[in-house]
Amino acid sequence: MKHRENRHGQKAAGGLGAKPRRDISGKPPVKAAHASRPAKPSRDHGERAAEPRDAATAPAAPERPLMTRSGERPAERVPVILESLGAGDFHLIDSGNGLKLEQYGPYRIVRPEAQALWPPSLASHVWDNADAIFTGDTDEDGMGRWRFPREALGETWPLQLLGVDFLGRFTAFRHVGVFPEQIVHWAWMKEQVEAAKRPLKVLNLFGYTGVASLVAAAAGAEVTHVDASKKAIGWARENQALGRMEKLPIRWICEDAMKFILREERRGNKYDIILTDPPKFGRGPNGEVWHLFEHLPLMLDICREILSPKALGLVLTAYSIRASFYSIHELMRETMRGAGGAVESGELVIREAGLDGRTPGRALSTSLFSRWVPK
Question: How many other CB atoms are found less than 10 A from the CB of residue 133?
């Protein structure tokens, strides 16, 4: 996979910072409670539903006051654009008119993409030659169905990213089990694990179908994968079996993410790398409620407490929020006050790669991210 990291100095351009990530586009607005998905398959998770908060019936989130941090805030690198042109069996062929045409292994797939405001570059007959087209509700969490213009396809098919085998799946919520823009984070993590002169412990919160967990474990890390969806955990185990990776050191935890990290904090357990990819809204397996704007500060605060003394990174990805990357950037810097290092924040983008997967075109923005690194 080709990817590139563009750093534009210390001052962000207003246009980039103002983009909301995935309220108007590709990723569903919610995953699942503190630790995963609600009731609809979507985003890197099997289930999620965007539903309003019901204060009368929803269990309160686990409470623990925020730590009082002192010391200097980490250095900053903004805006950082992490870009991929393609990854393994995936590339973005073309986009436009509110749609995107993608290659997932042997299949060309058409899905809604509200961010694609421009006209398509390729001729209509290329789009008409798609193997699968998602139709139905254009909302990110809306239900729909897949239409197969050429021939009926099976529910699943094999894919590979970063040397890891996994199953693509045609879900009722347009998503297929992986979000390829995350490859830039996974490649970074893989490099950290392979370059370390010691065993690393990786925590993957809201881990969905487990591709990142398998990448980390295959590189040599001891991995803890947390997701509140039994369906997502089952899919992740399928992926592990598909790649004959059952012996890799991965703990599959089906639990609310906030409950899990609070317990890890009490027990004094530490991790060298933490990946966290929370939804905008979600419910856990026992009705726990997650609201990103309310609970993200505490979640990051706990994550800092369970980072090891020689930690290599804390990575946050955010979708479906009406905010600029600066919101999570400043939160991350406050959370890591006194820890040294640097916080780099910006957007993940996928660049069109044409039919051949090697012809760069326009960049499609997919999500916001913020990443703390020790130096």
Answer: 20
Q: Say if residues 103 and 357 touch (Cβ distance below 8 Å).
A: yes
Q: How far apart are CA 34 and CA 304, in angstroms?
A: 17
Residue 57's pLDDT is: 42
What's the rounded Cα separation, in Å, for the pair 85 and 89? 12
Count Cβ atoms below 10 Å from residue 259 Cβ, excluding itself: 20
Determine the Cα–Cα distance for residues 111 and 130; give it in Å rounded to an integer: 10
Pairing of strands 201-205, 144-147: unpaired
3-state SS assignment for residue 186: helix
- Take residue 196 and report the two structure tokens written for it: 């370390």
Q: What's the pTM value of the predicted model, to 2 decimals?
A: 0.83
| Helical ranges in the chain per DSSP H | 14-17, 124-128, 183-195, 211-219, 230-242, 257-267, 292-305, 325-335
- What is the crossing angle of helices 211-219 and 230-242, to 10°? 40
**Read out DSSP for 187-224?**
HHHHHHHHH-SS--EEEEET-TT-HHHHHHHHHT-EEE
Pairing mode of beta strands 90-96, 201-205: unpaired
In the chain, what percentage of residues exceed pLDDT 90? 72
- Check: CB of residue 30 under 8 Å from CB of residue 49: yes
Write out pLDDT tens, residues 120-171: 999 999 999 999 999 976 555 557 899 999 999 999 999 999 999 999 999 8
Burial of 8 (0-12, 13-18, 19+ CB in 10 A): middle
201's tokens: 């412990």
